[in-house]
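Researcher: Next sequence.
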Amino acid sequence: MTQLIECRLCHKQISKHATRCPQCGDPRDWRFGLGILLLGIFFVVIPLIRAALGESTPQAVALNAPSNRALEPDKNPATQAIRKAHIDNLIENGFLLRIEHESSWPDLYLGPLFYATPKIDQNNWLRSVRDYFRAQHPKAGGLTLYDGGTSKLLGTYMTRNGVSLK
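Model: Next structure:
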């Protein structure tokens, strides 16, 4: 007589010799689990090791410079050109509506797409904008953030503290 076991996914009774659940298709093959483990190592563990060793992509280096740097951003013209193109792209695609630079802290008017973006991307973009202006104007200590639709003051961005909202 065939012994029945419970499917780990749908909890129906299946033969212990089955390689897949006939109801939900859940594989019982150990090689499937090994494949998931290998993918996890490739996509999670290796990037964590690379990050711990300080390796990063060329674009991240160009936009943000190393994270252990002083507050002085890279003033290299090629880096500034990449930052400027990045800022233009943010404005063109509606993440930022406009930037006004009448004081030592540039005013950024955030577009609706900015709010729908993950916080880590928001901080990277703001750091890139801040570094662009700081390289040109050393007194630009941070950014003032406004809602682009209402012009309401939202808060500030400084590299050491990140985003500080009111």
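Model: Residues 4-52 form one domain. The two ends are 70 Å apart (CA to CA).
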